Hints:
CATH class of the largest domain: Alpha Beta
Radius of gyration: 28 Å
Number of helices: 14
CATH topology of the largest domain: Heat Shock Protein 90
Strand content: 15-25%
Shape: elongated
Distance between the termini: 69 Å
CATH superfamily of the largest domain: Histidine kinase-like ATPase, C-terminal domain
Structural class: alpha/beta
Number of strands: 12
Amino acid sequence: MISPSDILQGKVLIVDDTxxxxxxxxxxxxxxxxxxxxxxxxxxxxxxxxxxNDYDLILLDLEMPSMDGFQVMEGLKEIESGGYLPVLVIxxxxxxxxxALQCGAKDFISKxxxxxxxxxxxxxxxxxxxxHRQAEDLNKFKTNLVSVVSHEVxxxxxxxxxxxxxxxxxxxxxxxxENQRFFDMIVTNIDGLTRxxxxxxxxxxxxxxxxxxxxxxxxxAEILRNVIKCMELLCEKKALRVSLELPDDLxxxxxDKACLTLVVSNLLSNAIKxxxxxxxIVLGILAExxxxxxxxxxxxxxxxxxxxxxxxxxxxxxxxxxxxKKMTMKGFGVGLSLAQQIIEAHDSSIEIEGSPGKGxxxxxxxxxxxxxxxxx
Length: 376
């Protein structure tokens, strides 16, 4: 939590071209107990000062002759790494307040100053700013922790998988034949944990902006085939029939190949989890009639289905519907959320159709890659 002492230690920059206003605000803040106060009468210096000092609050006059406060805010937006603009504008013009808020300012104070009101607005803004910093620090810690843990667990699982197959090669054939199902259980769960930890690692990278997305002409059909092949064992264990539906004259899509593979893998894995034995799953691509130049990629199953109320929730992460809970499936619940975030980075979103007990279809749109024209 933020304490009063934390607020009084917040770094404040005062920007006003009138010396009397600057001195008044400085004195008012110091009398209230604030210590880290800087001031300038040169608006063109604000961005450089903020880059060096990372202020918790900038008291910014809007009407200055050399450079107005709106221009200053535009410059601050370019250097504010956290995306939060800690600006409290000062204005004598009521008409400027709305425009200032639209430009990113978080609050305003009016001239002539009402000192108790000014102090309260400053205190409130500093509290929000410091809470925002705490949230940023916590998010960075979480991302780093998830990255380290996922990396270590992933390495360990890779070693366990290799050791399992080496052990298999040295087991008498008769014993292995009698206990094949136990071996398959080990491999299946190792692969499931590997996918889950990789999802966590990629989620952390995506949130930290470190998951690179490179758009290239991508063969979506090849990706669907490869994903199906990788999950054949899981499908066979539940006697699931998996088919592929593709249109004629299929063009490449504009996407990141690795990210698209991850999305389709997560959607198919989800379908396998929630489709009962002897069910059917269809992966397909079709030209979207309502959006010329786009394909719809889908994964359709005959599983437990998704209610209207659950559709948004299951894409937000760490959520399982009531029907899903009854199936006691393992996992961290981030696969669909990760898939949604990746597809959003492709300027689309995952759509869910179906109803409880009648299966579901998860789909998204991708733009067709422009055809290359042959030179004559």
